[in-house]
Design goal:
Length: 199
């Protein structure tokens, strides 16, 4: 079996685990087993820790498997690649600051159960619905050197973001109804666009 195919399969296994843990049915089971307050306090942090630890073997596999260079950007293209990656990092930082880094990591919830939060549609979220995904993809796709293994991993991550965003948006539509559908209609998913004025 080729290294890129093994990379795709390894990330698929990671994606299944990540998706299972994100499922509402699993959160509901945890709430029944450990109590709703414990889940509100600790589940987000648990989810993130498991996500990071389970991703490490996939990244190690990318470094360990036989690989070959696909391309390397010429020196004249490097400034543009770097600018694009910096734009991606900026988008990640601004998005996390806007929604709360502590909430995202699961640290803010440790002191007391998290209160329900509203839908964020201002700032960078007025330009794009999934700025965290967009920022991450800019950083990944603009790598100055691409190998077959890294390409397989980036393709898998991209597919996971696209598929995951579809399921995420179904949850948001159930939670916020027409308000989210209106937001979705005026705001692109991944490619930023200046916000439209609401009439």
């Amino acid at each position: 079996m080729s290294s890129p195919l093994l990379m795709l399969l390894a990330f698929a296994a990671y994606a299944v685990l990540h998706s299972v843990l994100a499922a509402q049915s699993v959160k509901d089971w945890a709430a029944r087993r450990f109590g709703a307050a414990a889940v509100q306090r600790y589940y987000r942090l648990f989810f993130n820790v498991v996500g990071v630890l389970s991703l490490l073997p996939v990244l190690a596999l990318a470094a360990w498997l036989p690989d070959a260079e696909l391309y390397r950007l010429p020196a004249r293209a490097l400034p543009f690649s770097l600018l694009g990656q910096l734009a991606g990092l900026w988008l990640l930082a601004v998005s996390l600051r806007q929604t709360g880094l502590g909430d995202f990591l699961g640290l803010s919830q440790l002191g007391s159960p998290a209160a329900p939060t509203g839908l964020v549609t201002s700032g960078v979220y007025a330009w794009v619905r999934h700025p965290l995904y967009t920022g991450s993809l800019l950083v990944l796709w603009l790598l100055p050197r691409m190998t077959w293994n890294s390409l397989a991993l980036i393709v898998a991550i991209t597919l996971y973001f696209v598929i995951g965003s579809w399921f995420e948006e179904r949850k948001l539509e159930r939670a916020f109804g027409q308000f989210y559908r209106d937001y979705k209609a005026r705001t692109p998913a991944f490619i930023p666009r200046p916000p439209r004025k609401v009439s």
